[in-house]
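Table S2 (text version). Query chain:
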Amino acid sequence: MAKELTFASMLKSGIYQNRSVLYDLQPPSGFLHRTEEKNELVMELAPILMNSAVSGIFVYGTPGTGKSALITEIVKEIKNEAGKNKIGIKTAYINCSESRTETVIIIDLLSQLNPEKDYPRMGWTRSKAIDEFEKVLDNLSTNVLVVLDEVDYALKESGDDILYRLSRINNGIKSRLSTILISNDIKVSDYIKPKTQSTIGRIKIIFSPYTSEQLFDIIKERSKFAFIEGVVGDVVIKKIAEIESQRSGDARKALELLDACAKIALSKKKGKITLDLVGEADELLGRDSVISTLTGLTKHQKILFLAMIKTDEELLNSDMVYKDYIKECENYNVEPLTERRVRSFLVEFDNMGMIRTEVGWLKNLHKKTRKITLNFDNAVRNKIRKVLRDTI
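Corresponding C-alpha cell output:
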C-alpha cells in the first residue's frame, strides 16, 4: 500500500537541491562532449562577423544530443561578439514542429525581425508574406541569422520551398541572411529536391548519440546541482547511462529517468536514490510517455497507430501496416494518405521512441521493407486503444 504524502514531508525529504537543473536547456557548467561540434559551428559562422552571409548549415542528430541547446548558446555568443565589435546582427528562431508551412514560417520570422509591426498568423497569402519579408530584410540592411529547428517537420508537411527561398533571397536584398537548419531526422535530405540541395545545406554537422561514458559525465555533472550531496551515487548514474546509451543516446531521457527515480524515492520516503528504483522508474516512464504523446498526434497519425496496436502481432512490416491503416480510415470515413506519407509517420514514431523500426529483407515478399516492433503488454495496449478511440 502506498504511503500518504504531505507537502511538509516533501519539504523535509532531503532529495532535491534544485530540480530545474535537470531540465534546463543550458547546462550549469557548460556543455560536455560537444567541443568538436562547437568548434566546427564557430568556424562556419565566423564569416557573419565579417559581414558575409553563410550558406545554410545543416545540423543533424537524434533528439537529446544537444543540437538546439548548443546552437542557442552559439547564437548568444555571436550576438555578444557582434555587439563588442559594433557589427549589426539580428537573429530569429523558429521551431518548425509548430510552424510547418512557408507562409507561417515567414510570418513568424517577420514578427521577430520587425517586432514594431503586428503580423497576423492567419489571412496572409504566400506572395504577400514573401513581399513583406523581402521588404523588411532590405530595410534592415544588416546581418540576419535565422535558425529553423526541427526543420524536418516543415519539409515533410509542405516541401522544401522555404529552404529554396532562403537560399536565394540574398540576391535581391541589402541584408545578408544566414541560416542554420536543425533536424532530428538524419534522412531529411530525402525530402529536399536536387535543385534546393545544390544551393543549401552543403555544410553538414552531425551530432552523434551520446555514449554510455558521455552520458555518465553529463548526468553526474547535473546531479551535483540538482540533488543534495549523497542522494545519488555513481552506481545509479552508471546504470541509467547504460540504459539510455543502448537506446538512442538521448541525454534528456537519461535525466528524465533520473528525475523519475527521485520522485519514486520521495513517494517511498527514501532519503537516497537506490539502484532498485531505476527499473521501476523506467517502466513507469515508458508507459506514461507513450500515452501522453498519443494525445498530441494528428488525426491520421492516431488512426495509423490504432491500426498497428489493434493487431496481435508484435513484429509488423510497413506493407501490412499500410493496408491496416487504409481499413481503419474506412472505419472513420477518412480519405487515406499516401504510402510515402505514412512511412514518414513511422519514422517519426521511431524517433519519438513509440515504436522500433529497422529496414530489412522479407523473404516471403522478396523485397526490403520497414520492420516494426511494438513492445506493449496487454494492459498498455488496451489503454492506448481507449485513448486513441476517445480522441480521433
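Notes on Table S2: The beta strands are 57-60, 89-95, 143-149, 176-183, 203-206, 315-317, 356-362, 367-373. The first strand starts at residue 57 and ends at 60.
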